[in-house]
């Protein structure tokens, strides 16, 4: 089975990722972000990149997919810079897998 890669966030942050063939969705309201995540999860998206800013609008929805294998939801910085949320998530996942923070 082949999976697609999606990107959710504000236009300035995610438009360049369209060049790599990712499906890009511009979302700025909590409802848009939640609906887009749900739609991508149902439509064979293996990885969903979401800007840290947009992720703050749909925390509950993202938390529901944390224990699922697909889609993997990866937080990325927006064009405004990183808030450290994505890095914290990676550190938490590594700590859970290894038993300690090796990063």
Can you give keywords for this protein?
Rossmann fold; single chain; 4-stranded parallel β-sheet; 5 helices; 41% helix; alpha/beta; 103 residues
Structure description:
InterPro entries: ATPase_V1-cplx_f_g_su, ATPase_V1-cplx_fsu_bac/arc, ATPase_V1_fsu_sf. The chain is built from five helices and four strands. It has helices spanning 11-14, 30-42, 52-55, 59-65, 85-98; strands at residues 4-9, 23-26, 45-51, 72-76. By secondary structure, it is an alpha/beta fold. The mean pLDDT is 87.
Topology:
Blueprint: E1 4-9, H1 11-14, E2 23-26, H2 30-42, E3 45-51, H3 52-55, H4 59-65, E4 72-76, H5 85-98
Parallel strand pairs: 1-2, 1-3, 3-4
How would you briefly describe this protein structure?
Produces ATP from ADP in the presence of a proton gradient across the membrane. It comes from Enterococcus plantarum. The chain has 103 residues and is an alpha/beta fold.
Which term fits the overall shape? Answer: globular
CATH class: Alpha Beta
Query: Helix fraction?
Result: 40-55%
Taking all Cα atoms into account, the compactness measure Rg is 13 Å
InterPro entries: ATPase_V1-cplx_f_g_su (IPR008218), ATPase_V1-cplx_fsu_bac/arc (IPR022944), ATPase_V1_fsu_sf (IPR036906)
GO molecular function: ATP binding; proton-transporting ATP synthase activity, rotational mechanism; proton-transporting ATPase activity, rotational mechanism
Keywords: ATP synthesis, Hydrogen ion transport, Ion transport, Transport
Function: Produces ATP from ADP in the presence of a proton gradient across the membrane.
